[in-house]
Predict the 3D structure of the following.
Amino acid sequence: MFFGGQDFGNFGNPMGQPGYPGHPAYPGSISTGDPMWKCFLAIAGQDGEVGAEDLQKCLTQSGISGTYSPFSLETCRIMIAMLDRDYTGRMGFNEFKELWAALSSWKQNFVTVDKDGSGSVEHHELNQAIAAMGYRLSPQTVTTIVKRYGKNGRIFFDDYVACCVKLRALTDFFRRRDHLQQGVVSFVYDDFLQGTMAI
């Protein structure tokens, strides 16, 4: 994976969380010797954070989308929302690195299941990709995802990443409320809206 001329590779899944690549990839203090720090500084605002437009430009220039279409502004917004724990609509350096790790893992997963090299995944390939991330979804849920993100039954990389972001963010939201880890929670309507509309 090349980013601004630097090879960052795939950061993998250091915490072993199913479907949670790079969760968090680099805890702790910021290292100015980190090659990603220079790239981050090049796009960060004076507040030391990155907005959706900056992220879109950075990801396009980085080449992480490879030969696929660049990420849409909406996909960049939901990428930030997935990691925006302080609800500023922007991301700091550690969040940026966590996102890079997730994107690298999702791209590797996408390429693996896109066996015909079409640049898109079909229903059965998406099912394989989701299972490889550790999720166990019903066939009805996978069909719903394909209807939401697919174009003529095929999901292209940008929409695949948007799907992965929402799947991770909504699973995080649910797990934080599933204290007994039984797959059942009770929501107050306002809590439900805040959690789902933020993504």
Observations:
- DSSP finds eight helices and four strands in the chain.
- The helical segments are 35-43, 52-62, 73-83, 93-113, 123-132, 139-149, 157-177, 189-197.
- The chain has one domain: 35-198.
- Residues 77 and 197 are 12 Å apart (CA to CA).
